[in-house]
Amino acid sequence: MKCFYSFVVLSSLIGVGQSATFNFENLTPSYTGAGSRPGFYQSVSQTDSGVTLTVTRTQNTTFDVFGMTSNDGIGGHRWLDGFNVAPERPFVLDFSQPLSDFSLFIGQFTASGSRNATLKAYSGAGGTGVLLGEVSGEIPMFLSGVSSSLTGVQLTVAASGIRSVTATANSPFNNAFIDNGLGTVLVTPEPVSAISLLAGLLLCRGRRK
Description:
By secondary structure, this protein is mainly beta. The protein contains two helices and ten strands. The relative contact order is 0.23.
């Protein structure tokens, strides 16, 4: 029984997937829909489950935190808005710890034609290193007569050792808003605990002989 217990505990300590959620709800809005977008932020960060997410854009491009008084329809009142500039400037999301998967809502406003969102995962910071995975999905169109609303798609990329992802949406706007990030970090055991359990397993093996 003791040997069986040791096997169970060791298995649970080898690696456990722990979720980290990033929804931007604690950020201060820089734009609420009135007037032009100021492009107030160059970087924002959130921490959950021991993982810090830092969001920037390529070429040091600014962005806004869009805030609504009512629910935005995708689970909250805040999202990151990249529509303050015309050229495409992908969002870059860096993680303080490597992830085994990451999911993100990528969207646009009042989509009137077929357009895609793309999420790419990399082994290095800032969208560098090895391209570990890439996934695209179609952003759905709105019903006729509906305007000034959100539409988008939740994309998930899975690979070992994700340190950053980039998020884009194709023309005609060439920009996107992002929200509802969810990643999985692999929690490994303390070295002493692992060594102790390994010694216990070897002891069990010796007793069974």
